[in-house]
Write a structure and sequence with these properties.
Number of domains: 1
CATH architecture: 2-Layer Sandwich
Strand order of the largest sheet: 1-2-5-4-3
Helix content: 40-55%
Oligomer: single chain
CATH class: Alpha Beta
CATH topology: Beta Polymerase, domain 2
Order of helices and strands: HHEHHEHEEEHH
Largest sheet: 5 strands, mixed
Shape: flat
Bound molecules: ligand 0O2
Number of strands: 5
Number of helices: 7
């Protein structure tokens, strides 16, 4: 019943339009960022940009996991990733180049940065997460919209996709073998990402 109430609010056309507005705004910024970086480095850095607006079921699950009641207000106040944008690039250092330019944007306030590349999660998950407040200006009001931007390499993205399919959010009791294997693969992927970066640096020198 709670999820149904949440669903009604989340499917409100005005709510969705505002989220889409912010998503498009950030996607255009990312295009400009890629353009600027491609001038400096003579190659495009951003391979792929994906986005999603978190659905009611996923919001409800996350609120319960965090110990909050399932309400629209809690979803708004307690969750950082109702709007999620994912940026995928080839090399580890691309991640920090893209993040650096995102953090320079004057109209986006950085709320939190989580570097799961330097400090991978227990599962082996790697990504750089930047959480921003982005203003949505309409008529005489300014409304802040929270956005989580995940930046990762193709290899990290591949790992997260497989983990999502097999382990993440699944019954932990059944997952021990797969979890262990994925943790090892995460180390492999990290090693490979570092080697790919070395390859590129050697090719450039
Ligand atoms: P989905 O399916 O993407 O909606 P915060 O409140 O911001 O401090 P939060 O959001 O509780 O922290 O947690 P965290 O760990 O930063 O995770 C945010 C997102 O990162 C997750 O969102 C996933 O997208 C991704 N993620 C985190 N850990 C893992 C992992 O072990 N495996 C995979 N595949 N992805 C992970 P959601 O809402 O959990 O999921």
């Amino acid at each position: 019943m709670y999820t149904e109430m949440l669903n009604n609010k989340l499917s409100d056309p005005e709510f969705l339009l505002k989220k889409e507005w912010i998503i498009q705004q950030i996607k255009f910024k990312l295009k400009l960022i890629d353009f600027e970086l491609s001038k400096q480095h003579r190659r495009s850095m951003i391979q792929k940009v994906e986005h999603r607006i978190k659905d009611a079921e996923s919001i409800a699950r996350k609120l319960v996991k965090k110990g909050y009641k399932i309400t629209f207000e809690n979803a708004y106040q307690k969750l950082n990733d109702i709007i999620g944008i994912r940026v995928v690039c080839l090399y580890r250092d691309d991640i920090y180049n893209i993040a650096g330019l995102l953090k320079q944007q004057k109209d986006m306030i950085l709320i939190k940065e989580k570097d799961y590349i330097k400090n991978p999660k227990k599962s082996g998950y790697q990504s750089l997460h930047l959480i921003f407040d982005v203003p949505l200006t309409y008529k005489d009001t300014v409304e802040m919209q929270r956005v989580e931007i995940q930046i990762r390499t193709v290899a990290m993205d591949f790992w997260a996709g497989v983990d999502n399919h097999i382990c993440y959010k699944k019954n932990p009791a059944k997952m021990k073998t797969a979890e262990l294997a994925l943790k090892n693969y995460s180390t492999e992927i990290s090693r490979m990402d570092k080697q790919m970066l070395e390859l590129r640096k050697n090719a450039e020198s």
